[in-house]
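Example 3.2
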Amino acid sequence: MEHSADGLMEQMCSSDFVVKMRIKEIKIENGDRKLIGAQKKKKLLKAGPLKRKDTKRLVLHMKSGAGCPCPQLDSLAGSFLVMGRKVDGQLLLMAVYRWDKKNKEMKFAVKFMFSYPCSLYYPFFYGAAEPH
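Structure, written as tokens:
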């Protein structure tokens, strides 16, 4: 599935963290879905509030996501571009895309995500006076 670079960059702006990673397994608990990252093979593209201990063993939560029809998670082979927010110590999943190195839009978005004017579009996520 093709995604626009602008759409991906806007999602990156609204996320606390962005990681390219492999997913080891998916667990379902109490109506939530947990994505457990592989120990190795992860690249932190935007750290945000993540601490070293957060990145050691990435566990991403999809609130009420047990019934989510997520076709991109049908197969856990390969890498994923994952975006989320840290809320009350939990890493909440906001978006997940299968990493496609042939997808020009995705490569462009990742390459230029730091030059994208996030604070102009999302001043309520960041301090309005803080440049990001």
